[in-house]
Amino acid sequence: MTTFTRRTVLSSMGAALATPALLSRANAAEVTLRLHHFLPAVAPMHTRFFEPWAAELAEASNGAIEVQIFPSMQLGGKPPQLADQTRQGICDIAWTLPVYTPDRFPVAETMSNPFMVTNAEKSSVVLHKLMDEFGAGEYRGMKPLAFHTHDGGKLHTRGAPVTSQGDLDGLKLRAPNQATGEMLTALGAEVVFFPVTDMVVGLSNGVIDGCCLPYEVVPAYKLQELTSYSAAPAPGARGLYANTFALVMNEARYEGLSDDLRGVIDAASGMGLSERIGKQFDEFEAFGKSLVEKQGNEIVEIPAAEIASWQEAAKPVHDAWIEKLDRMGKDGAAIMARANALLDAG
């Protein structure tokens, strides 16, 4: 078995791994890694990221690494258990959301607060930097491979568009996370929380009037057929919210790999991977929006002045989060200030 340096691994990968890998190995995989996630196999994240990424790892290792992908929680359990499944070795790699286990990964969860997103690519880089600076050790027993966000959420409604706070008064909305739900409640909405899979039934039978989600989820749940209006902040404003995501690997599994195979994993993860996933989510967002337009749904803008007043309504939510971080022994004000500074930069 030939070993080689990290520089060799990096040079062999590239954006599309156009050059052959330099590892000299037999065709049979030496290592099989099980990747677990909650989306169906038809979801863009599965077909356009997980499958290509697995193929890239196989190519970069000359077949030594095989990634077996298990969508739709096929290894059992529920999405909130994914991080623990990785830590316990039930799977080797998992893709999960910090908000699934509130307050457990608080630095990673911070950017799930309202108005902590620009686009997915930039916000993903910001999140990764924030984790590098403040989140070390948060994922004990796991090796983080990437952190990212989706694009800013939109308000999708059945009966009427939302362009002002008055339009939210009494509107029954499914909220994507607790912090965003608190803001929407302050603005007059009647907020409910349930899994996104139950949202389809809720919209179909009129239990809810709408939801707050990015366009990216439209294809998976045919949201364009369940709602008639979509409202987004005016260009240049922060997005309403974005959930954060973590791609994590069992730490012992990673450390047990040979030096060269760890190099392959290192070259295929980190800040570059976070940026790449964010960019792909911006592409997913554009595709989802195109389906809404094709359906003939009305897309409206929430004026910048209105968004500014909503941001004022979100300040108590941010203040409460800072206090929560402080109680956990972290510098809440510094974490929030750094995230905002990075989002505003450039």
TrEMBL record:
Residues 1-28 form the signal peptide. One of its GO terms (cellular component) is periplasmic space. Keywords: Periplasm, Signal. The keyword Nucleotide-binding does not apply. Pfam families: DctP (PF03480). It is found in: Periplasm. PROSITE patterns: TAT. This is TRAP-type C4-dicarboxylate transport system, substrate-binding protein. It comes from Poseidonocella sedimentorum.
